[in-house]
Amino acid sequence: MSGHDLAIVGAGPAGIAAALEGAALGLSVLVLDEQDAPGGQVFRAVERAAGDPALAGDYATEGMALVRAFRAARGVEYRPGTTLWHIDTDTLRLSLLREGKAEEAGASRLLLATGAQERPVPIPGWTLPGVMGAGAAQILLKTAGAVPAGPVVIAGQGPLCWLIAVQMLRAGAGPVTLLETTRGSAATAALQAGGLWAGRRLLLKGLALVREARARGLRVVRKVRGLQALGEGRVEHVRWEGNTIPCGTLLLHEGVIPSTHVTRALGLEHRWDAAQLCWRPTLDGWGATSHDGIAVAGDGGGIGGWEAAVATGRLAALDAACRLGRIDTAERDRRAVPHRAALRRALALRPFLDRLYAPAPEVLAPADDSTLVCRCEEITAGQVRAAARLGATGPNQAKAYLRTGMGPCQGRMCGTTVAALIAAERGITVEQAGVLRPRAPFKPLTVGALAGLAKDDAA
Amino acid sequence: MVLSAQEPSPAPGRHDAIVIGGGLVGAAIACGLAEQGLDTLLLDEGDVAHRASRGNFGLVWVQSKGLGAPHYQRWSRQSAAAWPALAAALAARTGLDTALEQPGGLHICLSEEEFSVRAARMERMRAEAGNFGFEYRMLTRAEVAERLPGIGPAVVGASWTPYDGHAGALTLLRALHAAFRDLGGTYRPNAAVAGLDAAPHDFRVTAGGATVRAPRLVLAAGLGNAALAPMVGLAAPLRPERGQILVTERAQPVLSMPTVNVRQTAEGSLLIGESKEDAGFDSTTQIPSVMSDMARRAVLAMPWIAELNIVRAWSALRVMSVDGLPIYDQSERFPGAFTANCHSGVTLAAAHARMLAPMIAAGALAPELRPFSAERFGHVRTAA
Amino acid sequence: MYAQRPEARPATVEVLVDGQVVRVPEGASAAAAVLLAGLPALRSTPVGGAPRLPYCMMGVCFDCLAEIDGVPNRQACMVTVAPGMRIAPQRGARVAGPRA
């Protein structure tokens, strides 16, 4: 079993940047990624799709440059199509799954750059065929160049809604309607957060996107509440307070949250981020976690976008090189200066965005009892409320009572919603309700693959 | 919206009985006490407790229990026999189906040596059972193949008894909690014990920011009992033993009866566990290697299991006494205080709810439970 | 319900979706192939029999579980299409047991 200096999980912007920085400092780097090509979700399939005019922008330029540099890097072993299913926190031995077979890898230090997932948007009817995440539709555009046929409704809020609307319209989809759920009071609160000047570059990009969307004919309905997807066997209409329209494809989006499945399973310290309404691992300025061999970079440590991810990846790699004795702390700190500046710039607008696009309480905890919360085990909001009344004080006990989080997704889709429902029912905060503690395997593997591991060990 | 599980009561904080521990053992006893008409308070820890109950494999298992300890064999058998009535009562009261099935069970042997050791063990069990009887059969490979689909070439045979079965451990926990509540019991989560004052027939427990009193106290806090028992003049010498369970994706019904380390749940998942008798598993080593050994043994018994995806794995700490048998005790210094400790919260649920609880309600354990006292370990620690 | 854009993705691969031949862009996932084929549902759930199609497309939600090249319950969004790949819907829980 080869031992690398630094193993990086995830080949998105954070993982790539960390690999480049680490390799440049002489570290032997192993990069594992579930996808078959580098880029992460934000730059997914960029090597194939950079020429698609619908995706013109950062994706085609910055994303392509990052992936090209990664492909050219020396001292980096890249294992695509590899799923991580267990980490031994004593030895940092990684249990992996590649092409259906279990294998292992070892490293002196570990960097988790597992990115983000779309925040689940549990509205009535969200499990109907034809309803999917807006980010999911964007992945379809990046990987297959495909767009929905017929009328598209994007419902929710956040910069990604506008980006996707523009990309779909560029690609010839339509008509496209954006049902924006941003509340009237949000703008005032957001302006108080400040950061507009420091974040002006991103802000201008956003405004340009809004202009392009308008010019391309995006229909926008504001202050939408009470969303429902309706239909028999698939979505046929979308309803909200005051209106119902026909709809063949409904794309939901209420921002993204850190993918903390692995960091939680490892028992690392986490904190509730009241601004971003999500759990995030507790990190220092270098991405170091409560485990002294494990760091986190990118959106998995808190949502900041791809530019922040690049900066935190670089910083984490510098710290890894320092802890491995390749550079001293003075050198580390000196090299960190430009990345810290980049991080500040990238995060400047974040407080404004977090307040403007804070999800409504009904997104966190659906009001209607019949709304499905756990997609795998098909458990409703009403059942979770009843479990809270029976005595479940958090998502782990609710899981024992109801099986929420016991399906194949292991609670990735329902965990935060279950906690929010319990919190509302018991009059406590989501933070007090707590968070699901997942266990290995982080992703399914077959009994045969697991059994095969033992044989290999014995050989 | 703030939820308080408290029922109105004439003397706040005063109950007929306090049960510490809301896992399978505590909830079953609390349910039984409430059924006896006692105003019962069940104190539980918070969201991250319940480890042993949540990790239960769900067997209602008799055939391996109590070699050299016929009283344990008898207690397990009585519980298995009382299970159908418990399941029916819970279903009637809560509408929850604990998915009890008792079609008998198999202990598969993967070598001639395992088979002969097993055969000798089963024969001893029968001899020790005496007049109580113990029905079993050693099945040949062909007979196992009639009962289980697609057994592997490594299967030599199996032991079988008609007493064995399985049930949904988590549904049982939920049903016990729901039934307890329906019987008027008071459940208080997030109430780890902060203080315990004992006087005969008068116990004061501080937990979750409140102090409560009762003339009867039952310690059913799993591994927590080790620290609590000495406060009421009892001993609960327990150690944790890590147990692992692998859970596969749901599948169409394929297994008609449970084996000691593979069973199919009512939902369709196959559970792969490790039996305590499968000695040699060092459960303190790295989890992947333990999981891998369990998977390999399951695949040897039924090779088609290899194709199924494991969607979850669970590791829980079993509550083990030195000899692996339950400990039931009553305090002589502080009459009214009892302990209940075991690692078979599902198998013994019926005994706890329907046999042990009435004894506690009546104020004394029956003589048949005398051999389960911690006195069997010799010197017991008591409060200073 | 999805439209391909051959001008943006000229290179394609032929796969079988529920027995039907479908040409999909190289690099697409099996889940994308299902959406491009216009399948009304990729699976019915083992719990309630409800129809589902891919939801997250990034390996999180497990709603795209499908039988791919004879292997049930694979995350279709995590599998890249290959020529001749067979992608089949699933009804309820998978079958387990010895092959006949």
UniProtKB/TrEMBL annotation, chain A:
Organism of origin is Neoroseomonas eburnea
What taxonomic ancestry is recorded? Answer: Bacteria, Pseudomonadati, Pseudomonadota, Alphaproteobacteria, Acetobacterales
Protein name (database record): FAD-dependent oxidoreductase
What are the UniProt keywords, alphabetically?
Answer: Oxidoreductase
Q: Name one GO molecular function term.
A: oxidoreductase activity
Q: Which residues form the BFD-like [2Fe-2S]-binding domain?
A: 372-423
Q: Which PANTHER family match?
A: ANAEROBIC GLYCEROL-3-PHOSPHATE DEHYDROGENASE SUBUNIT B
* Residues in FAD/NAD(P)-binding domain copies: 5-313
Q: Which InterPro entries match?
A: BFD-like_2Fe2S-bd_dom, BFD-like_2Fe2S-bd_dom_sf, FAD/NAD-bd_sf, FAD/NAD-binding_dom, Metab_Enz_Cyan_OpOx_G3PDH, Opine_Oxase_asu/HCN_bsu
From TrEMBL, chain B:
Please give the Gene Ontology molecular function terms for this protein.
oxidoreductase activity
Please verify whether the record's keywords include Oxidoreductase. yes
List UniProt keywords, sorted A-Z.
Oxidoreductase
Q: Name one GO cellular component term.
A: cytoplasm
Query: What Gene3D superfamilies is this protein classified in?
Result: D-Amino Acid Oxidase, subunit A, domain 2, FAD/NAD(P)-binding domain
Among InterPro entries, the record links this protein to: FAD-dep_OxRdtase (IPR006076), FAD/NAD-bd_sf (IPR036188)
Taking every annotated instance into account, which residue ranges of this chain make up the domain FAD dependent oxidoreductase?
16-357
Q: Which residues cross the membrane?
A: none
Tell me any Pfam family this protein matches.
DAO
Q: PANTHER family recorded for this chain? A: FAD-DEPENDENT OXIDOREDUCTASE DOMAIN-CONTAINING PROTEIN 1 (PTHR13847:SF287), SARCOSINE DEHYDROGENASE-RELATED (PTHR13847)
Q: What is this protein called?
A: FAD-binding oxidoreductase
UniProtKB/TrEMBL annotation, chain C:
Write down the Gene3D superfamilies for this protein, in alphabetical order: 2Fe-2S iron-sulphur cluster binding domain, sarcosine oxidase, alpha subunit, N-terminal domain
UniProt cross-references to InterPro entries, sorted A to Z: 2Fe-2S-bd_N (IPR042204), 2Fe-2S_ferredoxin-like_sf (IPR036010)
**Keyword Nucleus found:** no
Q: Which keywords fit this entry according to its UniProt record?
A: Oxidoreductase
Respond yes or no to whether keyword Cytoplasm is given for this record.
no
Q: Per its record, what are the GO molecular function terms?
A: iron-sulfur cluster binding; oxidoreductase activity
Leader sequence segment: none
Q: What is the official name of this protein in its record?
A: (2Fe-2S)-binding protein
Species of origin reads Neoroseomonas eburnea
